[in-house]
Amino acid sequence: MPAGFTEGDVEALHATLDGLLGSWDAELEARYPGDDASRQPVHTVYVPGHRYAAGLAGEWAAEARSAVEAAGGVRRLVDVLGIEDPVLAAAVTERVTAKLAVEAIEDLRIDFEDGFGDQGDAAEDAAVVAAARALAASEAHGTSTPFSGIRIKCLEAATRRRGVRTAVLFVAELVAERGARGLAGLPEGFVVTLAKVTAPEQVVAMARVCERVEEANGLEPGSLRFEVQVETPQAILAADGTAAVARLVHAAPGRVTSLHYGTYDYSASLGIAAAYQSMEHPAADHAKQVMQLAVAGTGVRLSDGSTNVLPVGDAEAVDAAWRLHGRLVRRSLERGYYQGWDLHPAQLPSRFAATYAFYREGATAALARLAAYVGFVPDGGGVLDEPATAKAMAWFLGRGVDCGALTEAEVRTATGLDRDGLDRVRVTGHAPQPVAG
Fold it and tell me: What is the CATH number for 233?
């Protein structure tokens, strides 16, 4: 017992501290549960709602392959992106080729906002019903993407009724179509994207919409979730000078899955000239850094935006667009933004090539250090890692496996960790016992 303390004194002090901190303990656990180690797509592909069809993912994959073949093949694309190491270049070429053959789109967003515009209620209703049926059909045919969803018009007064109508109609039609095929509820990974959010009240309102839609369609409570698109200055900085985006994250616990940065709307709202609107503009970096702080520890994911410079035209223009896109993808990854938007099939090859190079370049050191941390090898090369760093390395490797840059076999051979073991380190920072051999 510490000098000057009796056992009763210590217990009394603990009781006092529990009284002082108990409410914060509960709030900390509720607001900052950490990430659950589930897969996050590396990109979201946006397609106008009236142009979506059940075979779209396959069509985009074919167009992506054709674009690369017309430019000299995946290996030449790798050269265009400046991946010089021959071993790395060969591995990236092999994996990108495989990715474009089996899963060229990870996340698909059927767009009824800017990509659809105002075509009138009758036209939008018809497009919504057709898209919902097509999404169910793609799932039945085995051609659906791992993640999917719709983007609706914002909850500002002028578009509120239309946005809500689209969400209600799409979900009802999708649930009915899936039910007719013997499937219950919503597809795994389905979300609604709420555009042009300006206040936490709109997030609360969207959560109310989700609750009502769940009730009407017999869905499990909490199963309909949504993304918040950050593309207005009001979403970052409130009128009182506080960080509004932090309140957006916590306005609907369990409903908000991610924050998506809107490159061009946000830039335009700040008066940035069109020629300088970019994912790497200082204003964009500031917004995303605040978003990154807001989601830290909450389990809410973060996505960067897009570039509207497309790999189309003559060979010189295509190469220039690929170099720009690859550099921006890499830049985002280095800054901890593990997802972004793609707007054209020819952006898919550069997305995956840049992403795979990022993970494979970093894998050697991460695998060696994690192997030492979990005790699979005796020497970590003179680096003494802490649990927080071990979690970060496991996250890095897990994301690499999720997207196809790395394989589970590579991780297990180097670290002794199977996928469950890797995910345990990702979540807890602690090595599983015993270590797999």
Answer: 3.20.20.360
